[in-house]
Every structure is written in structure tokens, then in C-alpha cells.
Amino acid sequence: MIKDISFGQFYPSESLLHRLDPRFKIIITLILVVGIFLCNSVCSLVFATVIAILLMLLSKVPISTYIKNTKPLIPIILLTFILNLIYVPGENVLWRFWKITITTEAIETAVFIAVRIVLLVIVTSFLTYTTTPTALTAAIEDLLKWLRVFKVDVHSIAMMMSIALRFIPTLIDEINKIINAQKARGADFDSGNVVRKLKAMVPILIPLFISSFRRAYELANAMECRCYNGGEGRTKMKTMHCSAKDFVALGICAIAVAGFVLLNSIKIAGVY
Amino acid sequence: MEKLEIKNLSYVYSKGTPFEYLALDDINLSIKQGETLAIIGHTGSGKSTLIQHLNGLFKAQSGSVIFEGRDIWENKKDIKNVRFKIGLCFQYPEYQLFEETVYKDIAFGPKNMGLDAAEVDRRVKRAMEYMGLPERYINRSPFDISGGQKRKVALAGILAMEPDILVLDEPTAGLDPSARNNLFELIRKYKEASGTTVVFVSHSMEDVAKMADRIVVMSQSKIVMQGTPDEVFAQAPKLLEIGLNVPAITSIFLQMNRNGYRLPPVYTVEAAAACIKGMLEGDAV
Question: CA–CA separation, B69 vs B56, rounded Å?
Fold first, then answer.
């Protein structure tokens, strides 16, 4: 069950996108995310979808992995779809039933938002699939350097993030171990009503909390033993270098987003 | 009689991803009623994966696990009962403790079995007695007691289910030598009193030599050797080759033989002492 979580996990592969500078990848992802929100015509959404498909293909990560990533979000997508369908006001009434009216405008908004959510998931998972957690946090640290002017301890925040990311797989392992240990004692996590299911979580959560605290203490000690004292004067083993390909990628991304905006003005049948 | 039989069991982790890893490769093994079976092998040889198949925590991808003549997955809903009959105690079981009191924690298993309060009470007290836990511990928090005692409480939690087969994954990992000996002594006494079949994983050849009737050696996801301690430790070079060891006393005797003595193979200090005594009294050399 829990070991199937793949969201935010690195997928090793030898693709061009894996080799891009992580700082550029973060910027590209942000630009694409904003770009996707700017799409409000069918043409630009289709174009954005094409870009997303290209990203998936270029990353050399199997499409099935992306699909697996999107699956847990299906309920959210469905919910927003239905809510939009019902609540978005419009003039072109297609169907009326009791207090519910469905208009063409509502369908349009609902479909657009559902497509946008899927695209957002694809674009953000492209980032985490092609970038190792360490590279990601190093890049974030580098990108947020300017915050130091405001006395923000960027290094500590980045270190906290990388520790948190580093421990996700460890904790998943730990949870699985605890679940199995309690199952071996006949614990039942699958049957009963909500209250019983919540109660069944206690034998997992308490050992998990205790071991998390234990790990935190151990890690803190281990870091102190190696004279860790924060970001002051700290150098990196792997420094990041940007090269021509990074700027090319950024350029392509900017052109794509410009394309989204331009295509917004082309409406099929003058409406969509 | 064969209590538990494993037939052609194979298991692959993360099937179909770049992390794919074959953990068990066509394992065949049978465990007899009442025996003590030790599983040894280097880290990552598949021991833990194997024992998690025994009580159905892992479902065999191919092959089967047969308990008392019936496939444990024959009836999916019955798997919980299989887990009560084949009690599995994980490595560092003290990390699974969660209740407010020692008593409640040990009672978790029996309660899940749906037993009445009187029976649960009897089993908890019996398990505590077997594990040498004094009665005054009943109302203490399992987080306030020493590491060795925590381990015993966790083990008692498994014993309280009164399983037919007790499966232990490195029961003495991380304990000091005296706690180790003490724990094995308690397990041995429990086994003698209850007639339970015991399967345990260990990295200590001394413990294996002392406890086991039969040894299974795993290497690279396969069973590479099995037999009595005599048979297995006689093949010291092969054990060393796959990264395992023989008991210290066995290697001392092997070295002595290389220096011209003709000593029989031994694997416990007691046997070695008897042998040397005999030698000094003048029947060997």
C-alpha cells in the first residue's frame, strides 16, 4: 500500500532533462506552471498538453510512472470538475434539474481546470523525477540566496528540506516495518468503520513518532560530531554549473509560454 | 511430519521498475514439527524476505507456503489466523511497542485473536513468566524499561499468541553477551515447555551452533546449504567463501588440524573442552 507512493521521487535515467542544471529546471517548472494558468483557450491548452507530452518523452521516464503519480489526484480532479460544473454561472443553459443548472460555460471551465490540474502534476513531477532531492535542495538554496539580505537563514531551511526529503523513503520503510510487525500480531487495518480504522492507526503512529524522535536525536548528534555548524563558510562538493543547453532549454520554455499567450487570442468558433 | 513447507518460492522487489531486485530465487524448504531451524546468510541474502512469507506478510509471487498441508493463501480471509499460528517476531521488536503499559502491549495479539479477558490474562501472565519479566512490570510503561527488557516484552507479545511456530528475526541483535545468552536460554526453555517449532535468523555462528537442530544457509537469494550443524560447519571453506563464518572454536580446531593435530570437528565450546580433555588424558594426537 504505502510503498506505492511515487510522488516526488527521483527516477534514475539518462536523459537530457536529467542533465540540465537543477536551478534552471526549477525556473522552467515555475514558468510552465504560470504558463498553464495563463492558458484559457482550447488551442493554447492543446499546445500546453503537447509540451507536457514532449517533457514526459524527453525525460525518459515511463509514461506509466507519470500516470501512477496522477492517480491519487483523481478524486480531487473529479471533485473540482463536479463543483465547477454545478457552480459556475453562465447564460447558455444546457440542462436544468431541480436546483442544478448546467451551462456550456460551466462545462468549459470544468474541463479546462481538470486539464490544467493534470498538466500541473505532469510538469511538477517532471522536476522531481529528473532531479535528485539533493540537487533540488541545493538549487533552491542557490535560488533563494538573495533572501539573506532579509536575514533569512536560507542554508538552514535548505538543510531542513533536504533532511525531510532524505527521510521520506526511510520513514516509508519504517511504516511498512511497523505495519508488518503489528499485522504479525493480528492487527487489522482494513475492516471496520472509520472510527475503528482510525483507532487501528494508533499502533502504527506511536512507534513511528518515537522512532522519528530517536532518529532526529541520532542525526543531530552525528552532525555535531562532524562539526556541522550551519552555512557559514560551507562549500559544496558538487558545484552547479550552467551551460549553453540550460539557456537553450530556458529559451524554448519561454517561447512555449509566449505561445500559450498568443494562442489564447485564437478562438475556435469565436468562443473557446 | 512436515509442519511448514515452502515450494519453489520466488520474490522480486519493485517488479518492473529500474529498482527491480530478485530477493528469493526458487526456495524449497521444509520445517519439521518441534525442530529448531536456524537461517544464516549475509545481509541482503533474502532471509528477512523469506521469513515474512512464512506468515503471509508477503504473498508469494510464485511458489507456495504450505502450513499443515494447506496453502496459507488458500483462503484469503483466513490469513489472520495463519499469523496467529505462525508467530513472527521482527528484528528490533521493541520498536513496535505502543501501549501505555507492558500488560496491554503483550495483550495486543491475544486480544486481536478475539479471546475472552480471562484467557488473555492467563496468556499474558504466562508469556511474561516465560520471558522472565517480573509481575511488577505489568503496569509500567514499556518506554520506561531498559532495552533488554523492552525486547523481552515485545517477544512476550508474540509468545502470548501461543503460536505453533515461532519465527524470530535476529532475536538477539544489539544485545550484550549476557543478555544474549539469557534470551536464548529463555527461548530454549519456552521451546522445551511448549514443544513449539522455532525458526530463527542469526548472524552469530555461536548462537546458531548452540541452538539449532538444523541450519539453512542462504546466499544471493538462494539456499546454498542445509543440514545439521555438523554437516554445515564441516564445510567451513565454503561458508567463508560466501562471506559467512564458522564458530570461533571451530576455526581454532581447523587451524590446529592444519598444524598437524587430528581433531574431530567441533562447534561448541563445551564439545571442544571435552575433546581437549580427552586428548590431554592421552587417547588422541
Answer: 15
